[in-house]
Design brief:
The complex is a heterodimer of chains A (149) and B (208). By secondary structure, chain A is α+β, with helices and mostly antiparallel strands. Chain A contains 2 helices and 9 strands. Chain B has one domain: CheC-like (Chemotaxis protein chec), CATH 3.40.1550.10. In chain B, 44% of the residues are buried. The chains are: A alpha+beta (149), B alpha+beta (208).
């Protein structure tokens, strides 16, 4: 997870089945970018909080609030959750992206965070950058035009 | 000793895996040689246990685009095996098999993709065959699948599958040389921890 209040651009590379979540409080210009890999933290001890959608988002919100962000003002933009390989009959492998997206939605809803834009699913990897001065997220993919959210 | 994660592997165990890697790549080179119709030499492969970020750097950065062939391993051994194919590797294969070449991954047509998929599949299968033969395991492989995209995202596939257990991958790197060209061979094997323990036991590695 990366957080900035100085207006530097935040970037996370090559999101495959992973999800990138931008959380932004425009009033205090505090932005955070989380790169989660799995939907639910089932580790004993829960050490790697930022690897999972549930603990990652909650922990980031906590840290943002400690820096002066207020929950009703925080908005979210999400990208990722692609299916990288079309593998037949391999159980959970193809669904991890989808499960990540669902988990991110669920956690954001439970935490009362507004999801204002997203580009999820599909089968291409994405590089997600977030510019806290404009509040815009840019998504780059291989062989596709950039998307601005 | 039963290991819980990759970092706990002892040097003897890593040596065993390296030997397997060596035999596996040898077989893969033989298969490649048969397919390309030219002698293929290999350098001594290097088997390493790498953290995800290190593995990304090893294959050349998260955003560079490559082709990856993925096969799921089932049966007595569970895991994922990936073959990462850089452009120069692809071009030699295409040149030898189809007498054409590409400048960008976007130019790959259906026949070329199918050729790459098959090459990846055969290399992975021969590797796994050598491994399962050596250890006396019954292993099944799924139908292979090819994707062309950012490497970082390709590598997260085995990471996400076993991400709850470990942040480490087993990488097998060596160079094939064919027709005076050096071909980097990058294989990534990610067995789940239970399978890795089972494999080491089957190979008779006991150190406690």
């Amino acid at each position: 997870m990366k957080m900035t209040q100085a207006g530097n651009e935040l970037i996370t590379y090559a999101l495959g089945s992973c999800c990138g979540i931008c959380l932004f409080d425009p009033n205090v210009r505090l932005a955070a970018l989380i790169h989660i890999m799995l939907p639910l933290n089932m580790e004993t001890g829960r050490k790697n909080t930022m690897k999972y959608a549930d603990t990652g988002i909650r922990e980031t919100l906590k840290q943002m609030e400690a820096k002066g962000a207020r929950r009703p003002r925080i908005v979210a933009k999400v990208a990722g959750g692609a299916k990288m390989f079309a593998v037949s009959g391999s159980g959970s492998l193809g669904n991890i992206g989808q499960r990540n997206i669902e988990s991110v939605h669920k956690v954001l809803r439970a935490e009362n965070i507004r999801l204002i834009a997203e580009d999820v699913g599909g089968s291409v990897a994405r590089t997600l950058s977030f510019d806290p001065t404009t509040g815009k997220a840019t998504i780059k993919s291989y062989g596709k035009p950039d998307i601005v959210l | 000793m039963v290991i819980k994660n990759y970092q706990e592997l002892s040097s003897l165990e890593i040596d065993t895996l390296r030997e397997i890697g060596s035999i596996g790549t040898g077989n893969a080179a033989t298969a490649l040689s048969g397919m390309l119709g030219c002698p293929v030499r290999i350098t001594l492969p290097e088997v390493r246990i790498m953290e995800y970020n290190e593995a990304i750097d090893w294959i050349g950065g998260p955003e560079s685009v490559t082709a990856g062939v993925l096969v799921h391993i089932g049966g007595q051994l569970n895991g994922i095996m990936l073959s990462v194919q850089p452009l120069e590797f692809i071009n030699i294969i295409l040149d030898r098999m189809l007498s054409n070449s590409i400048e960008d991954y976007g130019q790959l047509d259906e026949l070329q993709r199918s050729a790459l998929l098959e090459v990846g599949n055969i290399m992975i299968s021969t590797f796994i065959n050598a491994l399962s033969g050596l250890a006396g395991l019954k292993v099944e492989l799924t139908v292979p699948s090819l994707t062309v995209d950012m490497q970082g995202a390709i590598l997260t596939v085995p990471m996400a599958e076993y991400g709850g257990q470990t942040d480490y991958l087993m990488t097998i790197g060596g160079n094939f040389s064919c027709d005076g060209h050096e071909l980097p061979c990058r294989l990534i094997l990610s067995p789940d921890i239970r399978s890795l323990n089972f494999l080491l036991r089957k190979l008779g590695v006991e150190d406690d």
